Amino acid sequence: MKKIGKAIAKGRYLIFILALALLVPSAIGYLNTRVNYDILSYLPDSLETVSGQDIMVDEFGMGAFSMVIVEGMDNKDAAALEADLETINHVKEVLWYDDMLDLSVPVSMIPDSIRDAFFQGDATMMIALFDNTTSADETMEAITAMRKMVGKECFISGMSGVVTDIKNLALQEMPVYVVIASLLSLLVLLLTTDSFVLPFIFLSSIGFAVVYNMGTNIFLGQISYITQALVAVLQLGVTMDYSIFLLHSYEEAKPNYENRNDAMAEAISNTFISVAGSSVTTVAGFAALIFMTFELGRDLGIVMIKGVVIGVICCVTVLPSMILIFEKAIDKTRHKPLLPSMDKISDFIIKHSWIWLILFVVAFVPALNGNNGVELYYNIDSGLPDTLDSAIANKKLSDEFHMSNVHLIMVDSSLDAKSKKEILNKVEDVDGVKWALGLNSVTGEMIPDSMIPKKLTSKLKSDNYEIMFVCSDYSAATDEVNAQIASINDIVKSYDPTGMVIGEAPLMKDLEDTTSVDLVTVNTVSILAIFVIVMIVFKSISLPAILVTVIEFAIFVNMAFSYYGGISQPFVAPIVVGTIQLGATVDYAILMTNRYKTERMAGKEKHEAISIAHKTSFKSILTSGLSLFAATIGVALYSNIDMIRSIVILLCRGAIISMIIVLVLLPAMLTLFDKVICYTTIGMRGCAKRK
After folding, report:
1. What distance in Å separates the CA atoms of residue 278 and residue 273, rounded to the nearest whole number?
2. Rg of the chain's alpha carbons, rounded to an integer?
3. pLDDT over 90 at 362, yes or no
4. Which of 308, 302, 280 is nearest to 533 (CA)?
5. Beta-ladder partners of 500
6. Cα distance between residue 126 and residue 112, in whole Å
7. CA atoms within 13 A on the CB side of 607
C-alpha cells in the first residue's frame, strides 16, 4: 500500500485535475437520475394491491385517480370543465354524474347513492382518471396542468396530488439541506482542527465523493426522494472521520520523514488499513437495509454503501493530493486548537464509573419500553404542511363530502348483474362506508349490461374486469379503515375469488403489515452482522457483546425520547435510524476499545489502560459525534417534510446520545468486565492475572 501511497503523493496534481474533471459526468448523471416521490411504489410486486394497480393500467389504461371538487358552478359549466379537463395530456377520463344520467335530469331526481357521491350543497365532485401510475412524471405533470386550469374555485385531492406537492416541496428544500449541513460541519471543523484552511479542504474532498455518489445513481435508474435528501448529509457526517484520521496520521508521520511525499505515503497506508476496517461496520449497517421487503430500504442501502466506499477512495486519493497541494496555505493559517483539553473531564468520568453503571441498570428497562412503544404513522400526507394544495383539497373533501378515502373494487367482468348489485349493497352496509357505486348503481340488477350507456361502460368495464368505487368515512392508515378494508375484501372474495380491493388505504394497510416485519428483520441482521465483524476484529466473544449492548442502549434512549415525549414517528424512521445509528456510531466504541486492548496487551493494568484509551479517543469521538450532529441538525430544523425531518432529528439526536453513552458507559463496562474480556479474547488471557 505504501507504493500506491507514494504514487498518489507524487501524482497529486494529476489526481486533483482528474477529480475536478470527474465532477462533470457525475453532475450529468445526477441531473439525469429520476427521483421517485411515491413511497407506496416501493411495496413488493407480489402484493395484491400492487398487482391490482398494474392490472388497472393494462386493462383500463389508467393507474391513478384524483377527486376534483368544484364549488359555486352550475351543471352546464361543470360539464364544460369536465370536457376541458379531459383534454389535458395523460388525463384519460373524467367521471361525473353526466356519464350516468343526462344533464336534463334534475339533481333532485337522481338516485340517492349518485347524488350523495357527486353533490353536496353548491359543490360537486368529479373523478379524474390518469393513464399512468400515481407517481409517474406524466401524472404529476397532469396534476400541475389541472391546477392551472381549474383556478381557486376547484380543489384536486388524492395521492397523485400529494406526491406532486412532495416533489415541489422537496425540489425547493434539497439545495438548502446541503448548504446548511456544509456550514454547520464547517463550524465543527473550525473548532476541532488547528487550521482555517483545512476545514474547506475536508469539505471539498467529501463534496467530490458526494457528487460522484449521486452521479453514479444513474445506473440504478431512479432513487427515492428520501434517499436523495439523506445521502449528502449522511455521507458528510459518516465519512468525516476518515478525513480526520488521514490528517492525524500525516501529522504523526511528518517528523519521521524528510520528504513529505514519504510521510503522506505512510499516512495513506495507515489510513486505508484503519478506515477500510472501520467502514466495514458502517457498510454492514446500511447493508442490513437491503434485506427489507419494502424496497425503499434497498434503495437507501445501496446508495449509502456506495457512498461510504467512494468516501474511503476519495479519502486516500483526493484528500491527500489536496493537503499536499495546499500545505503552505494550511501552515500559514495554523492556530491554537479552540477545544480545551478533555483530560479533567476524562478523569472525572473514569473515577465515577459506578455511577454510570447504576444509571445504565436503572434506565435500561424504561429505555427498552420507550423504544418498543413508539407510535408509528403510515399516512403519507399527514406529515406535510396544511398549506399545500393537496392538504387543502383533502380537507375540503372531508368537510364537504365527508369523504376520507375512495377504494376501488375490481371484479370479473363476467360476474352476473345480481351478484354485482349484492356486492355493492353489502359493501354499503360495512361500517364507515358512505356509498358504493358501480355500473349497476344506475341500471339495477334487472337491466342487462347491453343497455348501460357505452360512455359509462367504456370507463368502468374492460374485457376482463369491472370497477366499482367505494367511499369511506375513515382516514387512511387507521385501525378503522384497515378493518373496513378487510370486511370489504371478504365480501368481494365471497362472490369473486379473483376480485380485489385496491387504492390508497389498502396500499397503506399493506405498507403497515410489510414494514412491521421489516423492522424486526433489519434490526436482527444489523446486530448479527456487526457482532460478527467486531468479533473477528477483536478476536473476542465478550467485546462485541459489550459494544453492541452499549450502542443498542443508545438507540433505545434515542427512540424513548419520542415515546415519552408523545411524538409519533413515520413508519420508516425506526428501521432506518436503528441500522444507521448502530453502524455509524459503533465506530466510536471500536476506537476506544481498540486502544484499551492495545494498552492491556502492552502490559498496562486495567485502570491505566482504560484511562489512556479514554483520553486519547475523547476528542476523536467528540469530533465524530459533533460532525454527524452538525450534518443533520440543520436539516431537522429546516425541513417541512416530516418523513425527512423525523429521520434526521433521530439521527442528530442519536449521534449525540451515542457519543455521550460511549464516552461515559463504555469505560465503566470495560472496567466491570475486564477479567471476562481477558479470558474470552485471543491473546489477552495473560492480562487477567496482571496487577
Report:
1. 9
2. 30
3. yes
4. 280
5. 410
6. 17
7. 7
Nearest CA among 10, 35, 25, 32 for reference residue 208: 25
| Cα(284)–Cα(304) distance, integer angstroms | 11
- Spatial neighbors of 520 by CB under 8 A, at least 6 apart, are none
**Residue tagged 486492548 (cell numbers):** 597
Which residue, chain included where needed, has cell 392508515? 477
Strand order in the sheet with 433-437: 433-437, 465-472, 405-412, 500-502
3-state secondary structure of 121: coil
- Residue 232, Cβ neighbours under 10 Å: how many? 23
Lookup: cell for 508: 397503506
CA dist 185 and 188 (Å) reads 5
pLDDT digits (tens, 9 = 90+) for 677-687: 999 998 887 77
What 3-state class would DSSP assign to 448? coil
Give me 132's grid cell: 399512468
Contacts of 42 (CB under 8 A, 6+ apart): 36, 224, 294, 295, 296, 299
The two most distant CA atoms of the chain are separated, in Å, by 101
* Cβ pair 435, 403 in contact under 8 A: no
| C-alpha to C-alpha distance for 530 and 616, rounded to whole angstroms | 24
Interatomic CA distance for residues 424 and 446, integer angstroms:
15
- For residue 647, pLDDT over 80 is answered with yes
What the block records as the C-alpha cell of 160 is 397523485
Residue 531 CA to residue 551 CA, distance in Å, equals: 11
Bridge partners of 443? none
Dist. CA 30–CA 217, nearest whole Å? 7
Gap between the Cα atoms of 594 and 547, Å rounded = 11
Helix, strand, coil fractions of the chain, as percent rounded to 5: 70, 10, 20
DSSP 8-state assignment for residue 681: B
**Spatial CB neighbours of 474, under 8 Å, sequence gap ≥ 6:** 404, 405, 432, 480, 481, 484, 505
Phi, psi of 94 (to 5 degrees): -125, 120
Q: Given a cut of 70, is residue 455 above it in pLDDT?
A: no
Q: Inform me whether the pLDDT recorded for 542 exceeds 80.
A: yes
Banded pLDDT at 454 (limits 50, 70, 90): low
321-357 burial, b at 16+ Cβ within 10 Å, e below that, comes to: bbbbebeeebeeeeeeeeeeebeeebeebbeebeebe
> Rounded to 5 degrees, what are φ and ψ at 3?
-65, -40
Q: State how far the Cα of 109 lies from the Cα of 278, in Å rounded to an integer.
A: 74
Beta strands in 491-564 (DSSP E): 500-502
Residue 106 has pLDDT above 80, yes or no: no
